[in-house]
Amino acid sequence: MEARVSSSLGLPSPKPHELSLSLSTLTEFPSLLNHFTTLTHTHTLPFASTSNSTPKWLPPPSRSTPKPQSLLKNLSLLERALIGAGGGGIAGAFTYVCLLPLDTVKTKMQTKGASQIYKNTLDAVVKTFQSNGILGFYSGVSAVIVGSTASSAVYFGTCEFGKSFLSKFENFPAVLIPPCAGAMGNVASSAIMVPKELITQRMQAGAKGRSWQVLVNILQNDGVMGLYAGYSATLLRNLPAGVLSYSSFEYLKGAVLRKSKKAYLEPVQSVFCGALAGAISASLTTPLDVVKTRLMTQVRGEGVSKIAAVMYDGVSATVKQILKEEGWVGLTRGMGPRVLHSACFSALGYFAFETARLSILREYLRRKELSEAEMSVSTS
Description:
It is found in: Membrane. This is Mitochondrial carrier protein. Keywords: Membrane, Repeat, Transmembrane, Transmembrane helix, Transport. The chain has helices at 2-8, 29-41, 68-72, 77-98, 100-110, 114-117, 121-132, 141-167, 177-204, 211-222, 231-260, 267-296, 315-326, 335-379. The protein is an all-alpha fold. The longest helix is centred in the C-terminal third of the chain and has 45 residues, at 335-379.
């Protein structure tokens, strides 16, 4: 118990023969409390810090493995961004593939004319399985793997860069660091995410062929700009959604850390914070996602299916047509699957990202220390 408390407060661990507490030992508690108060006053807010404490669920480092804290200060902004990008790419591919079936159902529910084909979410699941089997829930999986890896790497890498960069300014409000970093990440990653989502949703809506064939068809019919159909709607959705999700997670994380007085989240806590942040973001931005889906699933020339055979002229025109034909309920289509998808995605995504990032960070620091040791030996 004493060893664990001392370690969490940054104090030397007591020796084994000193673990027995006597009554006189309790007199040292005020000095211990003063030390803890000094530590908390000299640190920034939890969501503004770049702490990289190693969680308990990761294997303990070996004797030859350097502590992240010992070399983290020597890492540049680019190195931190690249480490974040590596963790984000791994987490993004894993999370998107796991939750692709939910995203497929959500897309089918939001596509034009879905209310006439599917009675509810369960009916969409049953009809998808009856028509295409299990593979029907994984339409466009190759585009998802490639696109999600790239977009998640860019997103988390930019967020880590922005968070580290903004933290260097002492006068910058710490409370604004999460939303600003989240906005920077979303602007950078949308350039990759939009073509990936476009191809995936075209296939989910009924487009024939493999992912690369759908890509070629889009380029032939609409050119390169055809890959960015619904780009403005995607930014309109992703910026608020990204800022809400990323900021909510950072704020919830900070609140939990202050309450638990720990330097990191336990696995259950990270999953809970991620799920709640994703649910909040998804529920508030579903109307924007409906508009984006309608713009992305429209096609020129031959229609991919009868439910996507309508053309929209832009975001405002799409909103007006939805309100005219379906009322306000039309802007909430697919909210259930979307909230569930976003909650699961955020829970898995943030947990996977933190785990992958810390693993990459430890290995990178170990290799860097070995490289520096070899250089020092060769020069001497």
